[in-house]
Design goal:
Length: about 130
């Protein structure tokens, strides 16, 4: 048995200046950059969102700009296996998360628990 839920929207930006990209999205979404958040580091900028709202993170990337979702779980291996049964494939396994691809071509990540209150509002999978 494990749990999972929608965690965040990642806005992938192929840019030289991640702060400029983050400032645009902060203004567009009405959510300031949270410079004190642990998710704000290196190529990442976390926006300030209420605890019960989906997190939004801007990240500098080397591939084309796009957005993707993260699914947080208390058991990455079990969640990846569940999603593979639904037709998703593993695109890349990294140290702390797995990049997957849906049967319709979208990439998304399976990550460890990120937001407080887990497993509130999470699905339970037996």
């Amino acid at each position: 048995m494990h749990h999972s839920r929608l965690c965040s929207i990642q806005i992938d930006c192929n840019v030289a200046d991640v702060d400029q990209a983050a400032n645009f999205w902060a203004s567009a979404l009405g959510r300031p950059v949270d410079n004190d958040h642990v998710g704000t580091r290196g190529n990442y900028r976390q926006l300030e969102t209420p605890p019960d709202e989906i997190a939004v993170q801007i990240q500098r990337v080397d591939h084309e700009s796009r957005a993707h979702i993260d699914i947080e779980t208390d058991d990455i291996a079990a969640e990846v296996a569940r999603l593979e049964k639904l037709g998703a494939t593993v695109f890349k396994t990294l140290e702390r998360w797995v990049v997957m691809q849906s049967p319709t071509g979208q990439r998304f990540c399976v990550v460890r628990v990120q937001r407080p209150g887990f497993p509130k509002n999470a699905n339970r999978w037996d």
